[in-house]
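Q: Protein A?
A:
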Amino acid sequence: MPHATSAPGPAAPGVPHVAIVGAGPVGLDAALACADAGWPFTVYEAADGPAAHVGAWGHVRLFTPWDLNVSPRMRAHLAEAPRGDDCPTGAELVARLLRPVAGLPVLRDRIRYGTRVAGIARTGLLKHEHIGTPTRAGAPFTLLLDTPHGEESTTATLVLDCSGTYGHPNTLGDGGIPAPGERSLDHRITRTVPDTSDPGRWAGSVLLVGAGKSAQTAARDLAALPGTRLVWAVRNPAPDWGEVPEDTLPDRQRLVDASRTLAGGGHDRVTVHTGARVVSLKESPDGRVAVVLDTGAGPREVAADHVVSLTGYTGDPVLHRQLQVHECYATGAPMALSAALLSAGGAGGDCLTQPAAGIDQLRSPEPHFFVLGAKSYGRLNTFLLRSGYEQVDEVVGAYAVQSGSTAPTGSAR
């Protein structure tokens, strides 16, 4: 079989017809870039409004300030875009930036809400056909759409997958697969950061699984509820809580400090098990969930009124299953970008020091198809919105040169 190398630069002449999957922050920025370049484009959004994933964690405050979350294009189009060093919540990000951007005249009629992209393929070709040939590069994409009125199909010559990751949480079992009993009890498991504004919602015993920043946020907030007892299962036997030396983001450092205090036994209603794995779950006769943990101190059974699984998120690979996308075996994200990120900082590191991605790192063997935004990082948890906006710059800038148009207005290039 021919070696599947990165596709050459944009080969299709003329103005691309762009399909953008997802109306989150990066999808909206990509739409603005297409509008600035004068290209025809459509944004397909499964939810009924923009930035639904951000809205799902609307009660959570970001570590990064407004100035790192507003793209140059958004600021150029939206005079009232927030500025400064204040860190917004997800709800504030939607209300003050993303919803107004989606409502701009250049975008509002180009976003199809309630329309989920169910699959993407090359018109007339199967996944294994015409590897690395001009025939494949010249064939348009076919997109299968689930709409409020039924199934439809449409075509595009350039596809930007900005669908994100928040809709596809990882499971909590050992090794990343579901633990026995997890699938049948899925309705009892919360897989998003809990909103603790109603303390009664979390009364009783809560089992929390995970150690990343989402889990640390949940642990801090749940520990503050007087009617809640928290059992926190952390896989790493000696977690460093993702601490960044001399952290320039004070809220992130405060969260690390809070996690370290909880793990050190500094709270009488919190028990932290490090080096712990979830063995199984089952529903007890009293209606609680009985969870067996394998810990460094031996097996433990937790009787939980609530189970919260915050073990990370990954993008949906089903969208591009019929395309020639080279995925990293470690992260599940496109290979070239993953290789660059892993080589620069390993699987962890500081999100503020991630290397900028060039166009060659964003390409895959499938010509004119790009995964951008959080999904492009796969299992890596160092993505920043700023990184996604820079990715848009690279892709749209490269195609603008090919089509003979100027660089999009408001670009950070």
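Q: Protein B?
A:
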Amino acid sequence: MMKPAPSQRHYGMDWLRVGAFVLLIFYHVGFSFTPWGFQTPTRGVVSWAEIPLLGLSAWRLALLFAISGYASAALLKKDGNNRAFLKSRLLRLGIPLLFGLTVVVPPQPYMGLINSGYAHGYGYFLFHDAFSFRKVGYESLPATMHLWFVIYLLVYTLVLCAGLMFLPDAWRTWLRGQAEKLLSGPLMLPLGIVLIFGVRLFYDGWTDIHSLFVDRAAHLHYFGMFLYGFLLRGSEPMRQAIARQWKLALVLGLLGYAWVIGDTLLWPGNTPTPAAWEQPLSFAKSVQCWGTVVALFGIADRYWNFDSKWRPMLVEAVFPIYIAHQTVMVFVSYAIRDMGLTALPEFLTLCITVAGGSWIFYLIGREIGPLRPLIGLKRHRAPRKAAKVAVA
């Protein structure tokens, strides 16, 4: 049995969000050691590194968008109306996005250009090339890098708000009812798998383009996950469906991953999967994706819905750390590239320094009032519980 539906904050979703972003750091660091390619130097390819990363790649972004949809539903209820919710989302996502694109991200393509022979200093790059809307060397500028996620999330939020504001109430009620009926019954698992498989098979495959106007498969997949999370927040039947099926979903997710591992062992690295096996691989990734997301939602609701003194700070830190982490990783990668480290010491060094540097970025930013909105925090810090108790 599930625990009772949360009336306010769902702590399990908070822990799931924190865990997902922690895994994101390991994923991005590990990416440098795979044959898939990255803009930072590395000491060489580790042949088995892609195996654990493939355990995350099919579902990590789908999970983040679903959690974002869930959080959006909670914020909408807290704000009380669509306009207030839209305003708050524009401020909390839009301001950090502009700050990130203009201040945090530009060092990443610059370091990539330096590695390929770019002869100018950072000042020249910033004022002449960084925002030139052209291709310089191998870099298309201006670059969005990892902040594509925030762009997509902001666009999905705008589309959601438009639907909430302009669709007639009867239409919205009918659509919600139909979706809830499908996603709370025995078809929940097969339907999700088939939809993801169809999107990825008939559009751009599993390689996301991260370009807003052409990334069709990603939009259909991730916006669908965003809406699923949004619906889940207010639906007890959907929660109970997860309660009944999350263990089966976990088994399916592991089976899908097993197929992906087998495919990788047969055709490792950048060796293309033969055409006859492309559809089975895509189906396996769809099973892995949907099964893992449903299983993690079930685990979070069943086992992780508890509070801790560390939770508020960790939840607050997630967005600033996300903004900073990849730029920190690029700087550290270039700083240690001539130190003669082997793969394992370099991986550990990157994980520790990226996590630590991003954490310092958050700790400094949260203490400076004008900087807080720039890194995705509220303008003023919430009063501490100890202060409230003292006043009482």
